[in-house]
């Protein structure tokens, strides 16, 4: 069963929360982060992407970058921008985007749960990205950004969360992208203990929605500190990592679409003839067409949109991997027709999160940068859970969660 714990969060003074809160480190490159943090010395990007405060020629994986992040974090604490709660708490974090609301519990999750597969995964991680976050966290001696977890709904936990959000929040602001962020503190030790007990009794597994590299790195930093402190008891802060846990029914997964540079040597007539073997093709005109259901795709080519309906032989709805549209797309279009064998490394393919809309697909093709765009129907949260439970992993770039968690609203120190 899932182990969660309260912790003494380090977080902004209320008057600085909106300035501190930033987008996560992995949705911005260094140039974008530098621009976004310009003129805002309190942005948490100075901690989670500290290369923005060093010369642009600086190697982003140099120890100088990690040291700068630590210096920036401690400067914000010493300047009184951030402070630490006096007692261990859990917190509640609500996001509202375009009328959609999701309410998560901010708590510490156990690294043992990660290693023992109580925390379920659905993606492979890349060693170089893990190593980057390991060095970042180990230098800062904290978990600066939370892992986004989900769990099957539990009515008793929902009830406690609903009571919590009736109280006066610590923070309540709307970010520049229009998403509202509201944050409460659960200070009552008895309520925290009740939540902890409910997870231990009613939540057999939690599931990583977003943050596979952060969770892997957090667990491995904890393991390193265990090895450095062989007399550890298991109660030390480094045995846990920062997480936000949302009930599965509240989450919104958006489509994660593809754009490809060329037709792999196929002329258009040949390309569509090959498609016809696995898809029923219908011309939809020049207005953007978005897939309406599973096993339906839309394809944009030469100024026109096409509906692609996967033929029955291309999928197996009784198999957690073979039922996925990303699997169908890989097995019957990207690999055999367009020659893309590894979506993680092939430079001819790029990925466009659904938050950017269908217009971004059209723009990438119309500009001449790409030749074809393919939009997918979003993965369902139950599909993600089924795959995680089966011990399988999803194909690359299968899920795009929105809204993203803001970084800097609370930090977990483990030194």
Overview features:
Conserved hypothetical protein from pyrococcus furiosus pfu- 392566-001, domain 2, 2 domains, nine-stranded mixed β-sheet, six-stranded antiparallel β-sheet, 21 strands
Task: Furnish the topology, listing elements before pairings.
Layout: E1 4-5, E2 10-12, H1 17-20, H2 30-37, H3 45-48, H4 63-78, E3 82-84, E4 90-97, E5 100-110, H5 111-115, E6 119-120, H6 127-140, E7 142-143, E8 147-151, H7 155-164, E9 171-174, E10 180-186, H8 189-202, E11 206-210, H9 212-228, E12 240-247, E13 253-254, E14 256-260, H10 268-276, E15 279-285, E16 296-301, E17 304-310, H11 325-334, E18 349-353, H12 358-366, E19 372-375, H13 381-390, E20 400-401, E21 412-413
Parallel strand pairs: 6-11, 8-12
Antiparallel strand pairs: 1-5, 2-3, 4-5, 4-10, 5-12, 7-21, 8-11, 9-10, 13-20, 14-18, 14-19, 15-17, 16-17, 16-19
Helix pairs in contact: 4-6, 6-9
The residue fraction in helices comes out at 25-40%
What's the story with the biggest beta sheet?
9 strands, mixed
Strand content: 15-25%
Shape: globular
Please give the radius of gyration in angstroms.
22 Å
Q: How many individual helices?
A: 13
- Total beta strand runs: 21
Poorly predicted runs:
none
Provide the structure class.
Answer: alpha+beta
Count the domains.
Answer: 2
Average per-residue pLDDT, rounded, comes to 95
Question: What do these coordinates show?
Answer:
The structure is a single chain. The protein is an alpha+beta fold. The protein has two domains: 4-252 and 403-413, no CATH class; 256-377, 2-Layer Sandwich (Conserved hypothetical protein from pyrococcus furiosus pfu- 392566-001, domain 2). The protein is 31% helix and 24% strand. Strands 1, 4, 5, 6, 8, 9, 10, 11 and 12 form a nine-stranded mixed β-sheet that branches. Strands 15-17-16-19-14-18 form a six-stranded antiparallel β-sheet, with helices on both faces. A two-stranded antiparallel ribbon has the order 2-3. The chain starts with a strand and ends with a strand.
């Amino acid at each position: 069963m899932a182990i969660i714990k309260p912790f003494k969060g380090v977080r902004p003074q209320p008057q600085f929360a909106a300035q501190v809160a930033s987008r996560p480190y992995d949705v911005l490159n260094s140039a974008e982060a530098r621009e976004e943090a310009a003129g805002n010395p309190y942005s948490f990007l100075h901690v989670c992407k500290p290369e923005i405060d060093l010369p642009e020629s600086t190697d982003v994986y140099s120890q100088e970058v990690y040291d700068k992040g630590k210096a920036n974090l401690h400067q914000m604490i010493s300047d009184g921008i951030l402070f630490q709660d006096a007692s261990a708490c859990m917190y509640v974090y609500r996001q509202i985007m375009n009328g959609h609301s999701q309410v998560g519990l901010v708590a510490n999750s156990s690294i043992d749960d990660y290693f023992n597969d109580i925390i379920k995964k659905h993606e492979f991680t890349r060693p170089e990205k893990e190593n980057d976050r390991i060095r970042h966290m180990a230098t800062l001696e904290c978990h600066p950004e939370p892992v986004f977890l989900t769990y099957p709904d539990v009515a008793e936990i929902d009830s406690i969360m609903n009571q919590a959000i009736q109280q006066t929040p610590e923070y309540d602001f709307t970010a520049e992208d229009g998403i509202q962020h509201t944050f409460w503190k659960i200070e009552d030790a008895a309520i925290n203990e009740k939540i902890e007990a409910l997870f231990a009794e009613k939540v057999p597994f939690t599931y990583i929605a977003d943050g596979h590299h952060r969770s892997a790195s957090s667990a491995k930093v904890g393991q390193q500190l265990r090895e450095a402190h062989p007399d550890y008891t298991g109660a030390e802060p480094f045995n846990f990592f920062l997480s936000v846990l949302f009930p599965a029914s509240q989450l919104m997964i958006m489509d994660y679409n593809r754009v490809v540079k060329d037709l792999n040597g196929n002329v258009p007539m040949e390309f569509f003839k090959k498609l016809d073997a696995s898809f029923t093709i219908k011309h939809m005109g020049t207005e953007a067409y978005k897939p309406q259901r599973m096993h339906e795709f839309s394809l944009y080519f030469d100024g026109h949109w096409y509906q692609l309906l996967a033929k029955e032989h291309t999928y197996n709805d009784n198999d957690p991997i073979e039922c996925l549209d990303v699997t169908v797309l890989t097995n019957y279009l990207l690999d055999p027709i367009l020659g893309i064998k590894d979506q993680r490394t092939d430079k001819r393919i790029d990925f466009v999160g659904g938050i950017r809309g269908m217009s971004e697909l059209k723009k990438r093709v119309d500009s001449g940068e790409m030749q074809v765009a393919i939009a997918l129907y979003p993965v369902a949260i139950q599909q993600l859970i089924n795959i995680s439970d089966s011990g399988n992993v999803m194909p690359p770039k299968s899920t795009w969660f929105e809204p993203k968690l803001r970084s800097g609203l609370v930090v977990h120190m483990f030194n």
